[in-house]
Amino acid sequence: MDVKKRSSDPATQEMLKRMADSGQENAWDRLEAQEPQCGFGQLGICCRVCNMGPCRIDPFGEGPERGVCGADVDTIIARNFLRAAAAGASAHSDHGRGVVHTFIAMAKGEAPDYAIKDRTKLLALAREWGIKTDGRKDTEIAAELGELALAEFGKSYGTQRMAERAPGPRKALWKKLGLTPRAVDREVVEALHRSTMGVDQDYKSIIHHASRCSLADGWGGSMIATELQDIMFGTPYPKHGEMNLGVFKEDQVNLVVHGHEPLLSEMIAAASALPELVAEARAAGASGLNVAGICCTANELLVRHGIPVAGNFLQQELAVATGAVDVMCVDLQCIMQGLTEVVKCFHTKLITTSEKARLPNVEHVQMEEARALEVGKAIVRKAIEAFKNRGPVHIPKDKGEAVVGFSHEAINYMLGGRFRASYRPLNDNIMNGRIRGVVGVVGCTNPKVTHDEGHTRLVKELIKRDILVVMTGCAQIACGKVGLMAPEAAALAGPGLREVCETVGIPPVLAVGSCVDNSRILVACTEMVREGGLGEDIADLPVAGACLEHITEKAIAIGQYFVASGALVVFHEKLFPVMPGTAVHQYLTDGIAAEMGGKWAVESDPVKAAELIHAHIEKKRDALGINKERERKLFDMEDRQKLKV
Ligand code: BF8
Ligand code: SF4
């Protein structure tokens, strides 16, 4: 086993060796056991939509060219793509709906442990949605806002309210193309309907709906999740954070929160700070209580409270294998069933908390919003109890220091200051060329490629080229671990970006949050357009998105909503589930740009991906006419030098 091929992260390499020596299995081992994986599946050319199948198309043109129903290769790929986007949109949006339910309960006084933490945001969103705010109690406003937000998931008529935020030309384009997202549920149901046997069989029409359904996620379910979480838990502002397995403390009770919905983990974090529970932990022989996160629940707590992150998706089993985790408390999404096996080798107590995400033979403590803090306390007590049974531990030393929490409001504030918060300085620095553009590097970590390496190498290459990077998800954790989100990382940036970072006091890589927080990037792009000087639409901006290690269907939904919002999105060539050389591949990576301004690109090599993105950004700059400006300035300087001679 070559651990360096499996991961570029030293803590992960260390734990991989340890697990191998102890005969414990993890995702990399199970991937090896699966090999060779089904090539048809990888290329998206296997259909099991109906029971005349499963059908597969021969990629070499020697076998069948159509499924039993007559579906061709493009239809089959597009249908699989649409179903993935719909599943991804469902996951983000069902998380969003869960948040709205708790939000309404909070507003009605039925969830007393939750409160309005960001009143400014509550009022701003209420006004945006036409809710009367004068002379009303905050909770009254919140209750009305919550009901309107809930309707966004299932309303019978109309389109997503959040989509109104998009730049004017983008909204006009969506309207013209019939892409303005309606209710989230409707888009998802229609996606499943269209992709059943014998319905939509024109690949462009199928991808068209993948756009609409994904837009209902980005400009709907995800954005609602982000906004309402901000109101209830606070909008992120810059703070210190630490990331990697080295955040575990040998002498403390370590409680890991893992998943995506921060509703309960917020309460666990609050409970762990209560003096009575700290005293109980001390009485059990620990020096304190240490809450750390994994996956996007981690990102949520990190950007709002600076709670440490133990690792990203592929590190969940490794965290248990340190022997230092007393409780691993999971909510939903990206929770490997493999955890149920690895906990058998340790004292670690695995606890599920959402009725939507159960694991066989695992203790379930149901999250209840009416008594959420009590549930949080009960889970902390279970961790204290489990601590007493702890065996030997092995905690890798590695951890990265970072400054995190760059919500779009924080970027506004950092750049413009309290009294003139604006994106003007960012736009100016893009226009004067110090910053060439902005790229969102997001998404998962996949064992099929070297863990973390795609993200970290790509990001280093981008900042070297004076491209500001914004991050979410597991990619954010990958880069945080290696110090790319520390202010000192400015030293790795090109001279222009470095100058801006040092002047403003930001790192060259900004941690924005969880995967639903990709909606913050949509809002930031819209603000850049609104600020002026960089075109009229997101498609005009020198921006792009990238994910070189994607796993989940959620990543497909995110990619497609960025494409349909006008951005270039780069995925790893071998992980993109669309067979090269097909009409649908050609469409997604080229033809779609003529309609939407955005498109997909595929590239396996992080350096080449950075070059591709840089070239795209320079093309956008040329089109905006802002590169000419720079050339003129350089010419002026030369002119002056000549004069001196
Ligand atoms: O929603 S990046 S592996 S944890 S899916 Fe999952 Fe992918 Fe990580 Fe967050 Ni996003
Ligand atoms: Fe085969 Fe068509 Fe059924 Fe798919 S829908 S399994 S291609 S018959």
What structural category arises from helix and sheet content?
Answer: alpha/beta
Percent strand equals 5-15%
Question: What is the global morphology?
Answer: globular
Radius of gyration: 24 Å
Bound molecules: FE(4)-NI(1)-S(5) CLUSTER with Oxygen, iron/sulfur cluster
Please report the total strand number as a whole number.
16
Work out the helicity level. 40-55%
Largest sheet, in brief, is: 6 strands, parallel
Q: What is the residue-mean pLDDT, rounded to a whole number?
A: 96
Cα separation of the termini:
64 Å
Layout: helices, strands, pairs:
Blueprint lengths: L2 H4 L3 H12 L5 H8 L4 H5 L2 E2 L7 E2 L16 H35 L11 H10 L9 H17 L13 H10 L6 H11 L8 H31 L5 E5 L9 E7 L2 H11 L2 H9 L5 E6 H11 L3 E3 L4 H6 L5 E4 L8 H4 L6 E4 L10 E2 L7 H16 L12 E5 L3 H9 L7 H8 L5 E5 L11 H12 L2 E6 H9 L13 H10 L4 E5 L4 H14 L11 E5 L5 H12 L3 E4 L11 H14 L2 E4 L3 H19 L1 H19 L1
Parallel strand pairs: 4-5, 4-7, 5-6, 7-8, 8-9, 11-12, 11-14, 12-13, 14-15, 15-16
Antiparallel strand pairs: 1-2, 3-10
Helix pairs in contact: 5-7, 5-9, 5-10, 5-23, 6-7, 6-10, 7-10, 9-10, 10-22, 10-23, 11-13, 11-16, 19-20, 19-25
This protein binds FE(4)-NI(1)-S(5) CLUSTER with Oxygen and iron/sulfur cluster.
